Hints:
Layout: H1 5-13, H2 23-29, E1 35-40, E2 45-47, E3 55-61, E4 64-68, E5 71-76, E6 81-82, H3 84-87, E7 97-100, E8 104-110, H4 111-120, H5 122-147, H6 151-161, E9 166-168, H7 171-178, H8 182-194, E10 198-201, E11 204-207, H9 210-213
Helix pairs in contact: 4-5, 5-6, 6-8
Amino acid sequence: MLLSQAEISMLLENCPLFSGAGAEFLLVLTGMDGASRAEFSSGQVVYSPKEFRRCLGVVLSGQLQVSKETLFMSTLDPGDLFGAASLYGDAPEFASTITACRVSWCLMLEQELVDRLLAERRDLRENYLRYLTERIRFLSGRLRTLSQPGAEGKLARYLLSSGQVSLTCSATQLSRRLNVSRASLYRAFAALESAGLIARSGKTIRIADPGALELV
Length: 216
């Protein structure tokens, strides 16, 4: 669904790159040279190691899925930023694959425009560095999760790396993210629940004892 300019500005305020940039700037951003809106149909590849553009993208509507080969990494919702790995990198084979889960609209910012914005505005430059730092922390947490020897350790690391007290995720999605079987995942759920470390209600998982979960 195509959004109005006012709705786009409100979404951009929640984007890590444009936090605190000001309503006046956000209103004119989409009209700058190097900024365009793109529509992606359900199942369409937005980025991949063989198909990518040197630009940053902001999800305006719909939802995108991020994966690395067969491993599901995360989903991107309205206001989320993507494309940083391809913007200045010279190794496209390491880029993730981003696919539209349903019809989605994105704001695409070409590299030349991003270069100019980062050079001219200190607030955007600091926002971008902060965003990259958080991405490094996120990916480091994912690597720690995948390096755990068993399903319980992987599940514990994943929950802790989310930075949330509770999160909602289906067992199918979670087993793919952790690269474990559903049977192993359910055994890990049971073990952590019986130890009083987590509590589950449907698809929602709540961390009951973060300190003890760190020791798993």
